[in-house]
Write a structure and sequence with these properties.
Blueprint lengths: L8 H13 L10 H4 L6 H14 L2 H12 L2 H10 L3
Helix pairs in contact: 1-4, 1-5, 3-4
Length: 84
């Protein structure tokens, strides 16, 4: 992933929806703290990335990398608009 370019909220929404649609992820899984609880600071995104890498799940890693590359403001906006 190009860390110089911040992903946009509309680019990330499909990944979030895909993640939450997976069995067992209805409550957000490793992204619950960020996307459900609203802890949008960088440290929580970095923690989610570490957890995604431990899982070895490609979707989790991709989503976490995008969340890390986003600003706190973008993550807050994502949290507000992602739900379906």
């Amino acid at each position: 992933m190009d860390t110089q370019k911040k992903p946009t909220v509309p680019e990330v929404i499909p990944l979030v929806k895909q993640w939450y649609a997976l069995p067992g992820n209805g409550a957000g899984g490793i992204f619950h703290v960020l996307l459900d609880d609203g802890n949008c600071e960088q440290c929580f995104a970095v923690s989610a990335l570490a957890q995604a890498q431990e899982l070895g799940d490609p979707l989790a890693i991709e989503l976490a990398q995008k969340l890390v590359a986003m600003s706190t403001t973008q993550r807050k906006k994502l949290r507000q608009v992602w739900s379906f």
